[in-house]
Amino acid sequence: MTNIPNILTSIRIILIPVFVLVFFMPFDGVNIAVAAIFGVAAVTDWLDGYLARKW
């Protein structure tokens, strides 16, 4: 796993259980936290696709 697109995909896979755990946590900023995690996943998905096409 030496290329950047694979690392970004691995990060997204790791973010899945983090997203689910934070989603079900009872605290006031859960919506913001989940949106931030989703945003990170979306950006890494875009960057992964961009880099995969470039290389």
TrEMBL record:
InterPro entries listed in its UniProt record: CDP-OH_P_trans, CDP-OH_PTrfase_TM_dom
Keyword Lipid metabolism: no
Swiss-Prot/TrEMBL keywords: Membrane, Transmembrane, Transmembrane helix
Annotated GO MF terms: phosphotransferase activity, for other substituted phosphate groups
Entry superkingdom: Bacteria
UniProt organism field: Candidatus Tenderia electrophaga
Keyword Ribonucleoprotein: no
One term under GO cellular component: membrane
Spans through the membrane: 7-26
Gene Ontology terms describing biological process: phospholipid biosynthetic process
Record-given protein name: CDP-diacylglycerol--glycerol-3-phosphate 3-phosphatidyltransferase
